[in-house]
UniProtKB/TrEMBL annotation:
Keyword Transcription tagged: no
Main location (coarse class): membrane
Protein name, UniProt field: Gustatory receptor
Pfam families, alphabetized: 7tm_7
Gene encoding the protein: TcGr111
């Protein structure tokens, strides 16, 4: 059964993410990327996306619906579409035309860490902690929500489900969810390796070869730090866009039903659909931030354990190893704009609340167009 302790679990779903070109077409055995195939498929996906955007702007049903929106609703709707489109196109481009060598570095880093920690071939006995079980469960939950959302909007707009799918950002949201799923699988893998590393530090306290073993663990710590740097290079812009999109969704999901309520055309199913979407959006974002924050704390714990070993044994060599390891402590960042820690959650909610108040004030001053 698949476990986060062994990176080979990723091969199980890598081909699934290949469908969306979130990951490049990768040969794990030869550590090579089929770059020509990636570029060809990326060109097809980008062309398909551009055709969809043109068709979306020419869709009469959507145009009529948007005309009824208040200015704030139009703004959040267009901003949401733009952000999702940029996020998805960026992911395709970075998996095909850019960062090919960076993808190789990411896989090599995981292989090197697993080799040093000797985690290859590990089996997860708990079904709840099994990667494949969790992956399938999340996909099913999300697909149930998407189906319900399409049903609600098709009923509200009095159009077919297929028309609702074509004239909405549902496909983009599904793509964003797959990006999130892939990022979370990598984050949990990195965190798991820091946990294993700290467990090994605790275990060598009574070892006669403590110094030698600590040196080896410090090397693993260095590779993990480099892995985080690689992760930032590959996904920094995606994290920035996901953060912005999460805040925008909070404003949009609350602002839309409030505007409809003012108009006297309140629909309980639409309100419920928005509420569920808001809950999913915030839950996914908070979960991602909490995993990143806990991973960073695990990295800091390693340095703390090294200092404790140095104090208890009073060996100068331990101090040098600790300083060496401390140099490779890395943080997850959104392209260097900000570090991703727990306080970002309150910043997003606070900013969203501020913009929501501004949006409500705009709504009160502007009547709906008939």
């Amino acid at each position: 059964m698949s476990t986060f302790s062994d990176i080979t679990f990723m091969r199980t779903v890598w081909k699934f993410f290949n469908i969306f070109l979130i990951t490049p077409f990768y040969n794990f055995n030869e550590n090579t990327i089929h770059s020509k195939l990636c570029k060809l498929y990326a060109t097809f996906l980008i062309a398909l996306k551009l055709v969809w955007i043109v068709a979306l702007f020419k869709n009469e049903n959507l145009s009529e619906m948007v005309k009824q929106f208040l200015f704030t609703q139009k703004f959040t709707f267009v901003a949401g579409l733009a952000t999702l489109s940029v996020l998805n196109l960026l992911s395709v481009i970075k998996s095909s035309f850019l960062d090919i060598n960076t993808w190789k570095m990411l896989v090599k880093s995981f292989d090197a860490i697993d080799s040093k920690l000797q985690t290859g071939g590990k089996v997860e006995t708990s079904i709840c902690k099994n990667f494949c079980f969790g992956f399938i469960t999340k996909q099913l939950i999300f697909m149930i929500f998407v189906t319900y959302q399409l049903y609600c909007w098709s009923s509200f707009l009095k159009i077919s489900v297929l028309q609702s799918l074509w004239a909405s950002p549902t496909c983009d949201l599904m793509y964003e969810f797959q990006i999130f799923t892939f990022l979370m699988s990598l984050l949990q893998s990195i965190k798991r390796r820091y946990v294993l590393l700290n467990e090994k530090v605790e275990a060598i306290k009574t070892s006669p070869k403590m110094r030698h073993e600590l040196q080896k663990l410090a090397q693993v710590y260095r590779i993990l730090g480099e892995t985080i740097e690689t992760w930032n290079k590959l996904f920094g812009y995606q994290i920035l866009l996901i953060t912005f999109q999460s805040g925008l969704n909070v404003v949009s999901c609350i602002n839309f039903p409030l505007g409809v309520l003012d108009r006297g055309n309140f629909d309980i199913e639409i309100a419920l659909c928005n509420g569920i979407f808001l809950l999913l959006t915030l839950s996914c974002f908070i979960w991602m931030v909490m995993v990143i924050d806990s991973t960073t704390r695990e990295a800091e714990t390693f340095i703390t354990l090294c200092y404790k070993l140095q104090e208890n044994n009073e060996i100068d060599a331990f101090g040098k190893i600790t300083i060496y390891a401390q140099h490779f402590t890395r943080n997850f960042t959104a392209v260097g704009f900000f570090r991703i820690r727990k306080n970002i959650i309150f910043s997003i909610i606070g900013n969203a609340a501020t913009y929501l108040i501004i949006a409500i004030q705009f709504n009160e001053r502007q009547p709906y167009h008939s």
